Amino acid sequence: MASKIESSEYTELSRVTGWFVVLRWIAFAGVAGTLGAVRLLGLFELPFALLFAITSLLGLLNLSFTAWLRLGRRAVPSRRQTAAFFHAQIVCDFALLFLLVYFTGFLENPFCTFFVFHILMSAFIFSSRVVYAYVGALVAMVTGAFLAEYLGLIPHFQLWSRGGSAAAASYLGQNLPRAAGLVSLLLISAYLITSIKRRLEEKGQRIEVELDRYRNLDKTKSNFILQVTHELRGPIAAVSGYHQMLLRGLGGESPPKSLDIVRKAEHRTDNLLTIIDEMIDYAYMKSQGEVGRVRGRLPLRGAIEENLELLETQAAAKRITLAANCPKDLCVSATRDLLKIILGNLVHNAIKYSPPGGRVSVTAQGEGREVHLLVSDQGYGIEPEELDKIFEEFYRTRAARQLERDGTGLGLPIVKRAVESLAGRMSVYSELGKGSTFHIFLPALEATDEQDPDHR
To answer: pTM for the whole thing?
Structure first.
């Protein structure tokens, strides 16, 4: 029976077993307290010694369940072991609850309906066949005990009246409707909960199919964007190169008016290249579901210097100083492409939104099992009310829109996605007129991680 656990509910099962242990401690305290109060007040004539023994057994069993649960947190049990543990709890609960109910009036006891709770909980974890097996066992127990009491094979412990047992006719008249009601309650509850669960599972499967279809469509769209933007970048980069040649006078002297036109065209071309690069990064991150899982040893200092070198021309045009401070032996568990996306976007933005003559610094340091990477600028800063929005896709700050009309608003969302793909986290601190600092925390290299960081 342990193999009947629904595969999609394994995690939920582990959580429910913990709930059962906690609820059983509450039930143990409630039963012990109630029995003590009833005996002290002399409200009923019951076999208290036997009831206290059953309650003590409940406490001892739950103590063993608690120990098993704590042991399972250290050494993760298998699916079969977890299911068997849950079945053991249900069987013990049914047996002890049945004994407690039987010795306190059986069908006269209003708590005899508490069997339903276990039926409801198990229905969300196990298949319908297992649930009906439990219900069948309960119905057999209730019916058998009812007939045994009626035939005088076992004594009836009266709850609401003192003295000897009731006559057979009186017992039948009083308890037959109760027995029928309890059996009906168990059967109807099992039918309703399994029917509801089955319908929810069918709807969930249909939704999952639709989600898979939309995921595939989204991946196809991202791959298409990736291919198109790659094809566009080459010709536009060539146009930008020709503009640079004209501005440097490599094609001969040009009139000032012509140079001004070329300069404007180069500015627009550079903006377009930035947008294309962001679209390439965005499509790459969207299309590669496993992009951050294959990581390897990546010396951080070399990666920082490499990315700063690529942006030296942009920084020199605004007389901005680029500075790096990173220990030589500091390594990070990452991929070269993702780190390029992170550093490239952050440093590019720092240069873009800094006034001429400023300073952009990249600092890295080890902090326990993490590497703390900081990218700081002396730019315009970010409005406090916009700090929570800058990582939203397509959002652009007011200052960014004023400085540059064109833009995708994808740079920082791409960076955040790249950081999270590397199992990292990031935050930002900014003061208006003083600049911004982006904090990135990435996992330090683990000894077992030896894969190639050049993997894309």
So the answer is: 0.52
